[in-house]
Write a structure and sequence with these properties.
29% of the residues lie in helices and 31% in strands. By secondary structure, the chain is of the alpha/beta class. The strands form 2 sheets. The chain has a 7-stranded mixed beta sheet with strand order 5-4-3-6-7-9-8, sandwiched between helices. A hairpin with a 2-residue loop joins strand 1 and strand 2 (25-32). Helix 4 runs parallel beside helix 5.
């Protein structure tokens, strides 16, 4: 599978404005060519956020990682709704990093940071309570499997990895079960499934 669109390094030319309303909060986002789902929030991303809001309680001081943040929609939403949590967003794409940095400022979010990182490469000793991802399926299992395997080292005890997938992508929940010994379907809508695994030593 091609992942060329994840690696563009062209200057940001045209910006799109996206507004996202939920739980009495409006998130305003800038987007551009060269990032995933540039003109509207991806349906899988919306289903993931809904699944988290309906099923997961993010405690004060929780450390949250948005892995493959794009222009920052998941991490900024979680940071805005949970002002006492600390959110780290990472992406390999420099355009995504630039946009996320702008979107953090635009939404006046003070509890989120963004780092350019190939998966966990810049997060060596960091551990999280939640690792959340709409994963880069276009990059293939050679990226997705290390994303799941690496989560085990980067989750605290009882920490959770939560990911969204299209219905029928069974190899990934199977991999979660293999790595963590558990996987649960948390939420489903519109042909998408939200799965979680919990780190239990
Ligand atoms: C499906 S998109 C999701 C983007 C955003 N979270 C959203 O929901 O709109 C996956 C993201 O993973 C990023 N990505 C791809 N390979 C990566 C890697 N090796 N390390 C970190 N991020 C990666 C892509 O650049 C892309 O932004």
């Amino acid at each position: 599978m091609s992942n060329v669109h994840y690696f563009t390094n062209q200057p940001i030319k045209h910006k799109y404005r996206i507004s996202f309303n939920l739980v009495n909060t409006t998130i305003n986002l800038l987007s551009s060519d060269g990032v995933f789902s540039k003109k509207r929030i991806d349906t899988g991303t919306k289903v993931l956020i809904e699944g988290i809001l309906k099923n997961i309680s993010i405690h004060d001081d929780a450390e949250v990682l948005d892995l493959g943040c794009g222009y920052g929609v998941i991490g900024i939403t979680i940071a805005k709704l949970n002002p006492k949590a600390r959110v780290t967003m990472v992406d390999i794409n420099p355009v995504a990093i630039k946009l996320t940095r702008e979107n953090i400022k635009l939404n006046q979010v003070e509890n989120a940071i963004v780092i350019r990182s190939n998966l966990y490469s810049q997060l060596r000793n960091k551990k999280f309570d939640f690792i959340i991802s709409n994963p880069p399926l276009a990059a293939g299992y050679k990226v997705i499997f290390p994303l799941i395997e690496g989560a085990k080292d980067h989750l605290k005890e009882k920490g959770r990895i939560i990911i969204v997938l299209r219905k029928g992508v069974n190899a990934i929940p199977n991999k979660m079960k293999e790595v963590f010994g558990n996987v649960e379907l948390l939420y489903k809508r519109a042909g998408y499934r939200v799965f979680q695994s919990i780190k239990i030593s």
